[in-house]
Amino acid sequence: MMRTSVVALILCWWTSWSDGFVFLPRCRTPSLHVRHRNPSTHRAATQLDRPPTVTPTDPPKRPQQEQQQQGIVLITGFENFNINLYRKVASMVNAAVPSVHVSVFTDADIAEQPAVVEAALQGASVVFCSLIVDYLQVQWVRQRIGHVPVRFVFESALELMSETKVGAFEMKAGGSGGQAAGPPAPVKALLKQFGSGREEDRMTGYIKFLKIGPKLLKFVPGDRAKDLKTWLTVYSYWSEGAQTNVESMLYTIIDAFGLRAVGPSASSAAAAPVLPAALVEFPQQGLFHPDLPSTYLSSPREYCAWYEASHPWVTADTPRVGILLYRKHVITEQGYIPNMIKLMESNGIMPIPMFINGVEGHLSLFF
Questions:
Q1: Within a 13 Å sphere around the CA of 355, how many CA atoms are in the beta-carbon half?
Q2: Closest CA to 299 of 345, 338, 349, 354
Q3: Residues with Cβ < 8 Å from 239, sequence gap 6 or more?
Q4: Are the CB atoms for 340 and 347 separated by under 8 Å?
Q5: Whole-angstrom Cα distance, residue 83 to residue 324?
Q6: 343 CB contacts (<8 Å, ≥6 apart)?
Q7: CA-to-CA distance for 174 and 157, rounded, in angstroms?
Q8: Which residues contact 240 (CB under 8 A, 6 or more apart)?
């Protein structure tokens, strides 16, 4: 019987306070624990951990009624690694739809350039927030988005998610019927059908719901279901990631809420609307290698069989090292991943790179 030895598990996760990545090997030898940051891009944690002081007497400025702004403001947390992709997509959409201006920020910008973020929010028709969880940042954003007509908030603190408003669909506490903050009762009922009920399985159930939800909702009449479907569709594009999906997410928002040219700027708008492409789906978890003939594999056994057949230098005594990767890093083709794999191979180590979507990692087993 061939002996397989996994000598370490490397966890690669991005940090919101650094533009570098962190290696966290888990193994028997404490000396192998390495923490790496890029000193040229590292910012002091205190700069990001202390957003501007928020006071109740500091209300947001409202855009003037005569200014019919068509702005979309996107603010992401824990996404420094993807900021260039989002800005690239924003530039493409701005060029394709001149009547719309998409602005992209990270949670770090709330601390480092709050005036710029606030100015963008003042003229926004749509705000999109994801992974904003710091208490002070949440309060800062909440005080500045109440006037924005359309608000998408995903995977953030509950207080901020309660600001979600997409047409007739909203999550605000004290809404119709005095319901508490959170998804409306029909959504909660549907979510329960896609999970085990355990706290750690909620994201897995949420992902399953997002895949089937829009199809189920088309049979429900009324504007509320239509807006809920838009909310689900937008999140489906966002959660899948990759340039095409992010671009289609923005076009979905533009089309759903009529963010086309108004007034004097109408003559400069694109002659025909740019429609969103079909959702490009990626596996929620799997195995990756830059030399794979197919993009991803679903089974560690399948991966090991392919690797050993295509790398004759691997023997029964070759050390195997598992690498646990964040799914969005793989989908967005972060350069450190192939570099790390090749570096391990050059040192006689067989890498086993597996990616997961985050919180459902407890479901993933290498062997």
A1: 21
A2: 354
A3: 207, 210
A4: no
A5: 22
A6: none
A7: 17
A8: 279, 280, 281, 282, 331
200 within 8 A of 219, measured Cβ to Cβ = no
Query: How far is 260 from 98, CA to CA, in rounded Å?
Result: 8
Structure tokens at 180: 């508490």
∠ CA(129), CA(133), CA(136), 5° rounding?
100
Residue 182 sits at the vertex; the CA angle it makes with 177 and 184, to the nearest 5 degrees, is 50
* Cβ 336 vs Cβ 320: under 8 Å: no
- CA 174 to chain CA mean position, Å: 28
Among residues 81, 93, 44, which one has the least CA distance to residue 254? 93
Burial class of residue 90, CB neighbours in 10 A (0-12, 13-18, 19+):
buried
Helices 223-240, 243-256: axis angle to 10 degrees equals: 160
pTM of the model: 0.70
Residue 299 φ then ψ, to 5°: -125, 130
Q: State which amino acid sits at residue 17.
A: W
Q: Which residues pair with 73 in a beta bridge?
A: 103, 127
Cα–Cα distance measured from residue 334 to residue 13, given in angstroms and rounded to the nearest whole number: 12
pLDDT string in tens for the chain (367-residue length): 444 444 455 656 543 333 333 343 333 333 333 333 343 333 333 333 444 444 333 444 444 433 454 899 999 998 788 899 999 999 999 999 988 999 999 999 999 999 999 999 999 999 999 999 999 999 999 999 999 999 999 888 888 988 999 998 887 754 444 445 455 566 666 656 655 555 555 555 666 666 666 666 666 666 657 888 898 889 889 988 889 999 999 999 999 998 864 433 444 444 466 789 999 988 888 999 999 988 899 899 999 999 999 999 999 999 999 999 988 889 888 889 999 999 999 999 999 999 987 655 555 544 4
